[in-house]
């Protein structure tokens, strides 16, 4: 089955075409026929995503990205051999989501193929459990740790499609906190990679810490998160002190340590309580090398493994939407294209 995936939930325009076969399990396999992403660098000058501007850029980029994907797949642009179109319908920025949905509706009518609505977060889960064109070997139940600019969630996965939220952020998402702290340190957007770069330098040079930041809610009796207070602690320090040479590196290191400590501690507690042997980490922040290494090492000590996609697929992309769409298409979970709507606050369960 050939599935075209369309992703426009934020500021990345992603389209991918896959050919897949088999049910969710060891018999499943897929190959990527075409995959392209157009990232909107224009938002960096504003320090964040402007939805109206992102919507305009998506509308401009979608036809060109589609042409590239179909060209790479040697599919005729007017009438490609495609079985279904998978499109993100939430969560995300609704103006952006509508752009992808409208594009999918037009293609569905033009090509006479069905449309599969996909939850963006399920896409992040699916691409993180893939290894070399097949499903990684793991058993249910498993945990998903979804970390991005808009989400910080711990989800118990009982099977594919059966999810239960056990914890989520009460305020800022972890990626949002990275961006806010980066702005406080006068670093460019997106802030996550810049914070990580400075933190890595501080560790390599063994720079002494400037202060000890809080680890919010780390030992609370639930699995919720809170990162706004951590950002506020950095803000108060920056406002009270004139930053000297290498102070930004030291602050970045302590901030990344604090975030990582919380994520690792809460995830390990959940692993032990729910008896899982695999943690799936997805979302843009999963590209953070330090968090990956710390979490993988901690899980290995308790006999669990970390499943995480290559860094280049941690950000939003059409491939993850095509993969999720395939499994729903197998069940013929198609939507009426005319009634398909964006839901910026869509939940997995």
UniProtKB/TrEMBL annotation:
Binds 1 Fe(2+) ion per subunit. Pfam families: TsaD. GO terms for biological process: tRNA threonylcarbamoyladenosine modification. GO terms for molecular function: iron ion binding; tRNA N(6)-L-threonylcarbamoyladenine synthase activity. One of its GO terms (cellular component) is cytoplasm. Residues 31-322 form the Gcp-like domain. It is found in: Cytoplasm. Its EC number is 2.3.1.234. This is tRNA N6-adenosine threonylcarbamoyltransferase. The keyword RNA-binding does not apply. Its cofactor is Fe(2+). NCBIfam families: gcp_kae1, T6A_TsaD_YgjD. It catalyses: L-threonylcarbamoyladenylate + adenosine(37) in tRNA = N(6)-L-threonylcarbamoyladenosine(37) in tRNA + AMP + H(+). Required for the formation of a threonylcarbamoyl group on adenosine at position 37 (t(6)A37) in tRNAs that read codons beginning with adenine. Is involved in the transfer of the threonylcarbamoyl moiety of threonylcarbamoyl-AMP (TC-AMP) to the N6 group of A37, together with TsaE and TsaB. TsaD likely plays a direct catalytic role in this reaction. Keywords: Acyltransferase, Cytoplasm, Iron, Metal-binding, Transferase, tRNA processing. Substrate binds at residues 146-150, 179, 192, 288. Fe cation binds at residues 120, 124, 316. Belongs to the KAE1 / TsaD family. PANTHER family: TRNA N6-ADENOSINE THREONYLCARBAMOYLTRANSFERASE (PTHR11735), TRNA N6-ADENOSINE THREONYLCARBAMOYLTRANSFERASE, MITOCHONDRIAL (PTHR11735:SF6).
